[in-house]
Design goal:
- The structure is a single chain.
- The C terminus is likely disordered.
- The strands form 3 sheets. The chain has a 5-stranded mixed beta sheet. A two-stranded antiparallel sheet has the order 1-2.
- With 573 residues, the protein is an alpha/beta fold.
- Helix content is 58%, strand content 7%.
- α16 crosses α19.
- It is built from 24 helices and 9 strands.
- The longest helix is centred in the N-terminal third of the chain and has 35 residues.
């Protein structure tokens, strides 16, 4: 048996230790960034509903409320809140009272503590997902593992959503776990590893329905692993495929069913059938009925579409290229440059057949999900793409080795430069990663003009309340978007559609894609750019008499800062 010389083995061991230390440092940096963002931001659009559902789940085992959001993240939120708030056990059984009990009926310091605790569950899962991704990608080399981990840790999408009590970062992290399980299955096919992969995907399905598209890819990969020479050597390929497939399916079902308390029940299909023109009915008893009910509800909501905004236009059913634009505007230029440079390296040095097979496997789920989302009617923003991130980052991380192979040290240096540029661009907006936009869109100051769907989510209301108190303003005009602004100390009234003096705070989404106010209502004010921005998501205007006269005189300007409706009529003389 051949063995490496002691010096080579020592260098290899030292390299592994250095990579492990670097990966640990990246994880600690991401943990600090996520925790700071989680503490800084006020509640966002969906979080109160999720936390109320988590409290009901914990106290009453109520899986039915908010069933369209799978239960695993809500268990995490509930456990975290219970650790800091014993009164979680006293949650009323009514859904609206449950939300109030967790948040709105509590003192501000308790509200903020509960919100932060629930978010920390997501933070820890996100950091763990990055560590699992690094382990999986280290199979392709230490450089690939570190590069993929670095992309994960500084990704603005993950730093934004990984600090919230929402579902998307959980789905991405569980798919990172499934990715590692799939790599281990390919390395050494067997029943146990098939079951581990099935369980990981079952837990991923308990986080987000979009993860289901990974199941056929995993089945194909597992089948290939069992028929290749390493798999055939262990026995009959047909029997092993059948046994491994059974282990995969049973473990996935068991994991999902465990999240739902091994419950049986009936599923009502009327809401789903109504959308598709089918006769409504119910069926059962079946395992995890609330998950199935939620899946059908999501399918019904998806068929109706979602109000989406892109490049100044609002549509209910979106665009086929919507998510391509989202990736361009919500991904750092450094990460994009690394991906493009890998393709350039292939022109100089074509990848081997095994490398092409690996890349094809990494691309399979992203291509499938991206096509499904792009052709669907519900398009809501970058958070729906987070489940793709482990695979896209693994693919891009492998590019560092390709650059080194094609261009030598210069290529490796360029890969490192791309990673550093990605980190710098992302960290420049900390802790406002929800409002991150790449330089293609003009950064966070200009980006909302092109895309604002799940970016301004009401996350800076705490900062607005503090801003108002610091200036001792008794009241402001505020175009709110979500939540309960009064709880964060905002004293306000609705902004008038007629020109009027005062201090105005406008959520960016209400400027560019009005929902709660009429389109064109504030066009008299947004003739000019805002005087200040709070967290990039709230526009501040000071309107005194002199400025009011100027705004009225210029309200038909040909180049306003923004116009959400038709051109304003001529002002009265």
């Amino acid at each position: 048996m051949l063995s490496a010389p002691p010096a080579v083995g020592a260098r290899y061991g030292a390299g592994l230790r250095a990579a492990a230390l670097a990966s640990a440092a990246l994880a600690l940096i991401q943990l600090a960034l996520l925790a700071h963002t989680a503490w800084d931001k006020s509640d966002t659009g969906d979080e109160p509903t999720y936390l109320g559902a988590a409290a009901l789940l914990w106290s009453h085992r109520d899986f039915a409320f908010n069933c369209e959001a799978p239960a695993l993240p809500k268990w995490g939120f509930a456990l975290a809140m219970r650790l800091v708030d014993p009164r979680l056990n006293e949650t009323p059984s009514e859904s609206d009272r449950a939300v109030a009990h967790v948040l709105w009926n509590r003192p501000l310091e308790v509200l903020r503590r509960n919100l932060f605790a629930a978010r920390m569950a997501t933070v820890l899962v996100t950091v763990a997902g990055g560590w699992l991704l690094a382990r999986a990608c280290s199979r392709f080399g230490a450089e690939a593992g570190l590069a993929a981990h670095a992309l994960w840790c500084v990704s603005p999408g993950l730093l934004a959503n990984g600090s919230l009590a929402t579902l998307d970062a959980w789905a991405a992290a569980l798919l990172a776990a499934a990715f590692l399980a799939a790599v281990r299955l390919v390395e050494s096919p067997g029943l146990l590893r098939s079951a581990v992969l099935g369980a990981a995907l079952g837990l991923a399905a308990a986080c987000k329905a979009t993860t289901l598209a990974a199941i056929p890819v995993a089945l194909a990969l597992g089948g290939w692993a069992l028929v290749r020479p390493a798999g055939r050597a262990r026995g009959s390929a047909g029997r092993r495929r059948a046994a491994s497939a059974a282990a995969f399916v049973l473990a996935g079902i068991a994991a999902l069913w465990a999240v739902y308390g091994f419950r049986f029940g009936w599923v009502d299909t009327r809401r789903f059938a109504e959308v598709y023109g089918w006769p409504g009915s119910s069926f059962g008893p079946v395992p995890f009925p609330e998950w199935i009910q939620g899946l059908l509800t999501q399918a019904a909501l998806g068929a109706r579409g979602h109000r989406t905004y892109l490049f100044g236009e609002v549509r209910q059913h979106g665009w086929w290229w919507f998510y391509v634009a989202v990736l361009a505007m919500k991904t750092t230029l450094g990460a994009q440059a690394l991906a493009v440079s890998r393709l350039a390296a292939w022109l100089r040095r074509a990848p081997s057949r095994p490398s092409r097979l690996v890349d094809g496997a990494l691309a399979a789920y992203p291509v499938l999900l991206l096509a499904t989302l792009s052709l669907g009617r519900t398009q809501t923003g970058v958070r729906y793409l987070l489940p793709l991130y482990p695979f896209l980052m693994a693919w891009a991380g492998r590019g560092v080795a390709d650059l080194r192979g094609a261009f030598g040290r210069a290529g490796a240096a360029f890969g490192l430069l791309c990673l550093l540029a990605s980190a710098a661009e992302s960290l420049a907006v900390h802790p406002h990663h929800l409002m991150f936009y790449s330089r293609w869109a003009g950064g966070p100051t200009n980006g909302p003009r092109f895309l604002i769907v799940g970016d301004d989510w009401g996350q800076d209301q705490r900062r607005l309340g503090e801003w108002q108190r610091e200036r001792d303003l008794p009241a402001i005009f505020y175009a709110a978007y979500s939540g309960t602004p009064q709880k964060w100390g905002i004293r306000f009234s609705e902004p008038p559609c007629a020109p009027r003096r005062g201090v105005y705070a406008l959520q960016a989404v209400e400027v560019h894609r009005p929902r709660r106010i009429d389109e064109g209502c504030l066009d008299w004010l947004t003739v000019e750019p805002p005087d200040e921005r709070i967290g990039y998501s709230i526009y501040i205007y000071y309107v005194n008499k002199e400025r009011l006269d100027r705004l009225v005189a210029e309200r038909r300007t040909r180049e306003p800062f923004w116009r959400s409706g038709a051109a304003s009529p001529e002002p009265p003389p």
